[in-house]
Amino acid sequence: MNIFILEDNLIQQQRLERIIKDLSLKHQIRYRSLFSTAKPDHLLSQIDSAADHQLYFLDLEIKNEKHTGLEVAKEIRSKDPYGTIVFVTTHSELAPKTFAYRVAALDFIEKELQEEEFILKVEACLLIADERRTIPVSSDNFSFENKYTSFQIPFSDILYFQTMEIAHKIRLITKSKAIDFYAELNEIVDYDKRLFRCHRAFVVNLANIRSVDKKNKLVLFDHDESCSVSRRLQKETIERMEAIKQKQFPD
What we know:
Radius of gyration: 21 Å
Largest sheet: 5 strands, parallel
CATH superfamily of the largest domain: Response regulator
Structural class: alpha/beta
Strand content: 25-35%
CATH architecture of the largest domain: 3-Layer(aba) Sandwich
Helix content: 25-40%
CATH topology of the largest domain: Rossmann fold
Strand order of the largest sheet: 2-1-3-4-5
């Protein structure tokens, strides 16, 4: 789990960071990173490589714009449908407005609360987000965990995995985002029969292939995505793709 804070008041930002760190230590909640920023664009740029079950604390007002946090939440929800969103603000009158944006916020925490009550609300949100990490995001999902990372993605969203220039680093391309993590392609391809290594640098989700371009040696997906396929594996890729569609697997 990654934790994100959007807050343009440095004192409030540091306050929330301190509380999160103290509570995480108290409850032994593991998170990979705690990212704080006053700039919505900076936060949104980090989500492209985020996995599932992230936790976001968003101020509704950034630089005197009362609805900035709501717009950011809407963007987050489009990029990270499984993230947990919490609004932290001085504008309690905007609480009903959050429902109109359909971002499924977990809570609405007022900054003016007494410190003890404020901490209790943050604590409740942390515990719920931590619990959600163990809940499957789908009845049919790719759940990956090793000593470097842990995440879940619905199989229906997966397009392909590719190696990167950095040793042992993998990029997962889905229908909505990219996730970078450390692993070996061999670890991935053994996970499910729908995954096939069609090239030394690529593992594809056979169920989401639209077609194979033999001339240009490409596997084509929806959303204008494609990856390479080696010439010697073109025939097997097509055979396996067709078998998947028939719910059968070749030996």
